[in-house]
Amino acid sequence: MNLVIISASQQKQSNSKLVAQVLQDRAQHYSNISHIELQTLNLPFYSPDIDDMSFYCANWSDINEQLNNADAFVMVTPEWNGTASPMLKNFLYYLDSAHSANKPVCLVSVVFGINGAYPIAELKSNAFKNNKLVPIPDHLIIREVNQFLEDVKTGDSNHSLIARVDYSLEMLYQYAQALKPVQKLAHTYSSSFGQGM
């Protein structure tokens, strides 16, 4: 089973990246885990006129291969002004349903304080129509992220949020297995109903 973790902060040294690394370390069921940092890709703003992404992103073919081979996704976004990262939303426009349709995704929101729910609600409501990713119910909100990272660093395995991370990653794995037959069936109809209604 292959897992792709996407961290979507536009900052080079970000807590979203650190949280993604924690998730990568704790995802035990996958034979292959890759971590894509969107801020390293320099993707242009989405336009339907762009037909050669390799011009903008030299390793786009490698990324496409990772996305195609993925059985599940984790998407980590900071909360900025109550929204998900613009970089993540831009990336989702480029995500081809041939690589993502009916694959599960665990959404993760990262915030310094006690908010963090808005990016999850935003993404669940309007980010997956055409790429057809399936957000699992067990999303994560990493509130007070500095304390969370410190607890991970010091090995505080009793921290309730760390236990929730492990549970959510386990559920993501179960969804990845369960959705395999759906992916095969949906592939038959993908050319007919690629844009939903």
Topology record:
Elements: E1 2-7, H1 15-26, E2 32-37, H2 60-69, E3 72-78, H3 86-94, H4 97-100, E4 104-110, H5 117-126, E5 134-135, E6 140-142, H6 145-153, H7 160-178, H8 180-189
Parallel strand pairs: 1-2, 1-3, 3-4, 4-5, 4-6
Helix pairs in contact: 1-6
Task: Describe this structure in a few short sentences.
The chain has 197 residues and is an alpha/beta fold.
Q: Name the helicity range.
A: 40-55%
The class by helix and strand makeup works out as alpha/beta
Mean pLDDT: 91
Radius of gyration: 16 Å
Count of strand segments? 6
What letter string, H or E per element, gives the SSE order?
EHEHEHHEHEEHHH
Proportion in β-strands: 15-25%
Number of domains: 1
Taken from the alpha-carbon principal axes, the silhouette is: globular
Number of helices: 8
- Measured between the Cα atoms of the first and last residue, the distance is 31 Å
Going by CATH, the architecture would be 3-Layer(aba) Sandwich
CATH class: Alpha Beta
* Biggest sheet architecture: 6 strands, parallel
CATH homologous superfamily annotation: Flavodoxin domain
CATH names the topology as: Rossmann fold
